[in-house]
Batch of 2 targets.
Target 1
Amino acid sequence: MTSLSEDLYNEIPKFDAHIHQNVKRTAILDIAEKDGFQLVSINTEVPDFPGITEQRDVICELNENIDDPETLNFITTFNTKNWGKSDWQDDAIEQIKKGLEKGGIAVKIWKNIGMELKDEDGDYLMSDHPSFDPIYEFLADEGVPLAAHQGEPKNCWLPLDKMTVESDRDYFSKHPEYHMFQHDNVPSYHEHLVARDNILNKHPKLNFIGLHLASHEWSVEKVANWLNNFPNTAVDLAERVCHLQYQAINNHNKVKEFVEAYQDRIIYGSDQIDDGKMKAEEIQKLIRSKWTSEFNFFASGDVQSAWNVAQPFKGLGLSKDILKKVFYKNALKYYPRIQNSN
């Protein structure tokens, strides 16, 4: 970082509002304390993650044993494995209630809805299926935000050599089950987003955070249009900053103008996972590198580079006030149950 953005990085309180703390160790918490970050760990129904109850209990146990439990917040979720059984919706809402009672600040749904889960006829179950309405209604009535990863980056529907950023090529080469280009008779990119928007049209009081730039990551114009259409929404940046950097190669001003225009509705997150496979010092180095380089993209106007973006790009050079919103204030605004130590 340049000296100016480094000074800002050290001065501004920050949230990483999208990590996955899946093991009982404090590696990320320790580096977060040094760098002035608070954290939000998101419980998610991922096949190779621990069970969702175990994910929640990891956070609760960590918070019982650290000096400042407000450093680590979490978003809860519910299990879809029993979908279709007569009492599954009641059970899902009870899971949500328990998660909220233990300190959860929102509820997450993941891409398994639309990409894995199927109904009794073998059709993919989309996120706007009527069976989910009681859950969305409960969240809207209780004022609990829904944080949703619906669909995938548009690159998911392209061959590996046509993808725009290296991190997507890396992920989909390792997870071909989610690389929709390789699969026939699956819902399209457009169908995922239509289903997501149907939820918002049906439940206009639902507070909704479109994770990963709401899967419109490839176009700041598309993100802007989506935010304009749905006033109760925000987006997070988790694992999608590189897509803004990619667009900044040829459309720097457009990206900067987007962030300036929607500065009150963008939340920073890294999507870093701690599953215990890396040594503590390795994951600390990795996440700090991501934090500093991504902060620098927003804070500095210098020409920069990133490992997953093929060409250099110019940073956005945003004001201190905007940086405070993206990296701190907006997390508090859209997750009002958040515990804040600052």
Note: The mean pLDDT is 96.
Target 2
Amino acid sequence: MAVENIPEIYLESNGVQQELFVYDFKMTNDVVKSKVNLSMNMFSFLQVGKKQVHFADASVMVNKDQSLLIREGNWLWTELLDNDDIYYCKLFFFSESRLKEFMKKYPISDEIIKDEDPFFVIENDEYITSYIGTLSRMAVNPSTYNENLLSIKFEEILLYLMGKYGEKFETYLYSLITKESSPFKKIIESNVFSNLKLEEIAFLCNMSLSTFKRSFMAEYGISPGKWLQDKRLQRAKEILQEGKATASDIYLDYGYSNLSNFSIAFKNKFGISPTEISK
């Protein structure tokens, strides 16, 4: 299944970077599942249907009474739950720079503890339902009028949700501009010392192996195999130096199928065998 990059696939290739963008999205039973790479923060205002959204380390089921605010950088696996249903929502994308402008105008305390969740669940009410009804596909024919109107609508929904959810929502907003690492890096670095293969880590990132390798090179400037090998061998060296285990005890834990391969890789990197270092 191909990975769709949004909102890029909804925008015309005119070289213009849109910082606020609305799109009417419909998912029918002939497309039950889809994989998405999200490059902008996004409101997903659900109007019809329900579906399950899977993230790297979480999942959430939403119905027509709920909407989501999802942070950029997420790789999503979306699944239509009822094959007889249609999933219909309005997507409202916004850039980090626009959010910073809003937070400069309406300051939020920087002492708030960051929220690292990939999404924020919004319970639709009468106001939000009315708000959704005012959004239209204004990004189809961009104009100064539409841009100004979207700016107003953007401020409106953020101010309303700050009033509705208080500090809980403010915490999530603040986290959107204080990201220490992308979800992609978080998944990789949480599995550095596992015995997972590249294919398995790529799966956790909702990527094909080839896409994973390209993304890894762009992020780290080195191949994932070499990077993981170096990290794991360095950790193995520390364990052996501490005398807590032998090479026979740990080679499987660091991704090697046999002791011989581990010993060869170890010696190539450090110039001595693992048995020598543990003496």
Note: Strands lie at 3-6, 20-27, 33-38, 41-48, 51-54, 59-62, 66-70, 75-80, 87-94, 119-123.
